[in-house]
């Protein structure tokens, strides 16, 4: 169940829950006033926390490592298509809106994105 | 120093035959304790906890999510009595954040080689609130024989028949299945124990019937075959999860004493039908494990699946509904989609619907779950089917001279309680 490389530009190493060494795929689209961050779950190749479970922890680590302003990001989680026979592994994108409290991303709210909405984001590249 | 180790009770699923098996986590943990520690163990499923028992330190071992809330209650009672309480085990790892609020200390990870530090800190009055060894797996060679001597064996006995003892031959899992948290808990890497260590442990177990609890034995064919070859002389009989679908491996498994396997049945394909037949051809029974409520199942699919189970001659079937346990993909998906409506961990028993299924109402899925149990066992009850499987193992034991008759002293007891007989 290998995640195709088209979903990411780099593998991002992060500390998951309980400092678990974890990995995700990362693609950043820079627009005029926002950074669109797309984190992709790597399943078997991620030894630690999933991108969803890590949630705000991961968003914070990406911002800090890349020097992004935490107020100027659009954060998207991607379930990649792994060509599995099981429908649970179909492609899905969720925009995650966090509250920012004392520099921490908390209270995630999820909005599933249609492929049209996703195309619009990607076309801003 | 007395360490009071507790395994909290949980409410068993209604309508199903209740068996209390000796727990595995506490006996593995006890084996890692320093020599100066004396363990007093209570499995609350089979006996009451004496909260006033003399002890220095309290440990709560939780395997299931449905034990968590009870574990926290127990902890509060001991803490009110001035005792320090530490938590460990699989469910502690899944619910660590919440457990920290009810504990003096939480241990995450595997215990071998780490307990000297924990107990040393306790003795110095310097117990840490968190011992985090997640994903820092100790050398698998350190896993020694579990301390089954802490169990009161007579409590795991039904009318004179001793329940199976649990043991493990490996840790971790290379698979990462949709509803399962094992790869999070034990790592996404199969870690087989050295065969000689496994055999050494098997030889110490005074029970001919075992449940090898490894997530799947079908992870390394060479190791699996070597394990079975070495088990043959012991003449044990065992239950396990999946065994490699290979005639050579199945043949060795049968010789090693494979009694029956838990095999996931997820569709109505010929592959599954043939898979079950191949086990049967080798004299190995099959208990199908059937997960209901996945997003790819419509009501018709579930009904067809139940009919299919009756056609393929499963020896037993166990139905569950999807429970989105933390650290599974199922949890992530349902959380993002806002489909989890019940967050009471006592309801995460895999028999109660706690989320919105994709193709039906929660109520309808609950009805189908109840229907599945009823339909599968309508012509022959669960007890009758179990008795058939039990008869098979008895006959095999009689053939190889390992059969032990039931313990006559315990025929009027079931898991420590008196059997009530309705004889007129």
What portion of residues of chain A belong to β-strands? 35-45%
Biggest interface, and residues per chain? Answer: A-B, 22 and 26 residues
Q: Helical region count of chain A?
A: 3
Q: Tell me the strand order in the biggest sheet of chain B.
A: 2-1-3-4-5-6
- Count of separate DSSP helical elements of chain B: 14
Chain-averaged pLDDT of chain A: 91
Describe the model.
Chain A is 18% helix and 39% strand. A 6-stranded mixed sheet of chain A has the order 1-2-3-4-5-6. The longest helix of chain A is centred in the middle third of the chain and has 11 residues. Chain A is globular, with a radius of gyration of 14 Å. Chain A starts with 9 loop residues before the first strand and ends with a helix. Chain B is an alpha/beta fold and 424 residues long. Chain B contains 14 helices and 18 strands. In chain B, helix 7 packs parallel to helix 8 and helix 11 packs parallel to helix 13. The longest helix of chain B has 19 residues. The relative contact order of chain B is 0.11. The chains are: A alpha+beta (125), B alpha/beta (424).
Can you give keywords for this protein?
heterodimer, A: 125 residues, alpha+beta, six-stranded mixed beta sheet, 3 helices, 6 strands, B: 424 residues, alpha/beta, six-stranded parallel beta sheet, 33% helix, globular
Could you give a short description of this structure?
The complex is a heterodimer of chains A (125) and B (424). Chain A contains 3 helices and 6 strands; from the N terminus they run βββααβββα.
Question: Secondary structure elements and their pairing?
Answer:
The complex is a heterodimer of chains A (125) and B (424).
Chain A: E1 10-15, E2 21-30, E3 35-40, H1 51-54, H2 56-66, E4 73-79, E5 92-101, E6 104-113, H3 115-122
Parallel strand pairs in A: 3-4
Antiparallel strand pairs in A: 1-2, 2-3, 4-5, 5-6
Chain B: E1 2-7, H1 25-31, E2 38-43, E3 57-61, H2 68-80, E4 85-88, H3 90-94, H4 96-100, E5 105-108, H5 115-123, E6 130-132, E7 157-158, E8 161-162, E9 165-167, E10 170-171, H6 182-186, E11 191-192, H7 195-204, E12 209-212, H8 221-231, E13 237-240, H9 247-256, E14 258-264, H10 270-281, E15 285-292, H11 299-311, E16 316-321, H12 329-336, H13 362-376, H14 382-400, E17 413-414, E18 417-418
Parallel strand pairs in B: 1-2, 1-3, 3-4, 4-5, 5-6, 9-12, 12-13, 13-14, 14-15, 15-16
Antiparallel strand pairs in B: 7-8, 10-11, 17-18
Helix pairs in contact in B: 7-8, 8-9, 11-13
